[in-house]
Amino acid sequence: MARTVRIHSKTLEDLEFPQVLQQVSEFCITEPGKEAVLKLRPFSQFESVTPELKRVKEFTASFENDNRIPNHGFEPIHKELHLFGIENSVLEVSGFRRILSVTETTKELLKFFKKYEEFYVSLHDFSSEVSYTSLISDEIHRIVDRFGNIKDTASDDLAAIRKRLNVVKGQINSSFQKALSHYSQADYLDEIRESVVENRRVLAVKAMHRRKVKGAVLGQSRTGSIVYIEPQETLEYANELSNLEYEEREEVKRILKALTEYIRPYQGLLKSYQEYLIKVDVLFGKAKYAVKIEGVLPILTKDKRLFLQEAYHPLLLVANQKRKEKTYPQTIELVPDKRIIVISGPNAGGKSITLKTVGLLQVMLQTGMLVPVDAMSEFSFFERVLTDIGDNQSIENHLSTYSYRLKKMNQFLKKCNSETLFLIDEFGTGSDPELGGALAETFLEVFYEREAFGIITTHYTNLKLLANELPNAINANMQFDRKSLEPIYKLQLGEAGSSFTFEVAQKNGIPYSLINKAKKKIERGKVRFDKTIAKLQQERSQLRKTTSSLKSEEQKAREENKQLEEVNARVQEKLESYQELYDSNQKMIALGKKVDALAEKFFHNKRKKSLFDELFKLVMVENSKRKKVPKKKKQQEKAKERKVQQEVEKKVAVIRKEKKKQKEEKKKAPPPKPKVTLKVGDRVRMIDGRAIGTIDTIEKKKAIVNYGMFTADVSLEELEKV
Hints:
Blueprint lengths: L8 H6 L2 H9 L5 H8 L7 H17 L15 H7 L8 H23 L5 H7 L7 H9 L12 H30 L3 E9 L2 E7 L8 E6 L5 E6 H32 L3 H27 L5 E2 L5 E6 L2 H10 L6 E5 L5 E5 L6 H16 L11 E2 L4 E5 L12 H15 L4 E5 L8 H17 L3 E5 L3 H9 L3 E8 L6 E7 L7 H7 L4 H10 L2 H82 L2 H18 L5 H38 L14 E4 L5 E8 L2 E5 L4 E5 L3 E3 L1
Parallel strand pairs: 5-9, 8-12, 8-13, 10-11, 11-12
Antiparallel strand pairs: 1-2, 2-4, 3-4, 6-7, 13-14, 15-16, 15-19, 16-17, 17-18
Helix pairs in contact: 2-3, 3-11, 4-7, 4-11, 6-7, 6-8, 6-11, 8-10, 9-10, 15-16, 19-20
């Protein structure tokens, strides 16, 4: 088993990881599966998490193709496994049916993953570790039928007992029927004639005739008018029936005891089957949750690097889906040369949620869960994730917020190293701004020197300045609309954020005279610095909008220019075509006029010879204008045509030969892999190709594939899922 990551339970609570597990558990279909999900903890080993992520990815893909993974539901056998550990214990039939359910379900899954091992590679590798034997299910099938009854063939003695039971039951029915007919004719019976007492058929005899009917009295009606008597004719058979039923019960007990002893040695194997099915249920829950949050498998790297593109906070995403509200994604990057990010800006702008998004997605990934990011995002692994988020006042230990935070910082200092990701919300708060800020600055320098990766949020100016001075740290801010003072929920790297303290106060109705008085009470430099930052943010925001607008206009102009060039080319082509048509028409008109003149002349003089001479002369003149092709040249052209035709025939013969060969190979070749329905976001490559890209859009039977540096328009039939 892989060792769990050194992440404290308080850190998981800060990041709301238990809430995510609760949502995942709701997708599991068995109680043991739900319990297993709630106990999940992150792993640190790359080798352990990578196969788990691939298994979840394959399970997710199974929901969209024809080869859907079979049902993995089962009834837990905890009680049966416990009884196997107790000497001379005997299982009931219901227990064996549960065991059969576990073994049969395991068998179906192992058989399925073996059949489609090329498609479910990771799930097959995981399943192949289970050692399966059919001896358990075969023996249970031999003893118990599909309705949960012990079969007559379970033993020779049981078969003989049940055979005799059927004979005796027949004798009881025939003898009772004979007595019923006899006493009914004698008018000794009540209108109901018969009844059942203590599971025995009895005659309903009128009380006045009770002494006339031979047999055992088994009861009477409430009024005493009817006496229930089992006739003497059936008594002997009934006693034999009771003895046979007792023998049957004893024989069934013996058979169940023998079956229990047969299966008892397989206790460990049955336990492994149940653990396997629980694990499959956990994978199913993870896969279903991934579909819910549109989770993907990002790029995994052993280099210390985090690149979250279009990342969503899963809990916020699910909550907003229910409310039908928009969720804003964030893009954030932590790399060795920019490994610490200091996020500043006003409250309610999304700083804390950005911080939690990074931490929660990291913990989810290291627990083997797909995360809601762009498929081109990159994740590495951290041995420790340290957090200081939320209201940290410890009432139990009588610690103030600041004392508690200092205690947390002390723990950070002990554990922080290059394998650590730290996340601190409102860094340095809880004490005097000057002194607390100075101490926070010192802590940040220590984290920086130890090459830890982290994100902090703060309002302290000195921390913004420090982030600007440290080569491998960077400022960031959550963008705000300066006019409306509404958050845009977009992280901007590379610049510090203004807290908009006075602007927010003014918006909320605080008199300007009080705000102005407050400004005078603090250092002029700080106000100017905060104002400068705010102005810089506004200018950069405006610049980004202008740049985006210019790019849009440029693109639009290029498209219009291209369209104009195409229109111009089409117009030019039409003009040339019209000119040729006009010249041809003018030529035909001139020729027509000449023929008309000859016709007019013939109309008057009726001279055929003169007409023929003139027509012949006209034809000769027209033919002289045509270009003559030399006879030799004609022969050369014919020879060339024959040569081309021969080459074409040769190529056709080669193509036919190749197609015939391909057909023969297809007959010999193994069946093709099951076709997967591709969707936007899938990682794909060209069939027999190496380059891997991501599908951006799908239109009809074509897809736009993004290869990072370029995109390509490719037919879906030429793509395969990675």
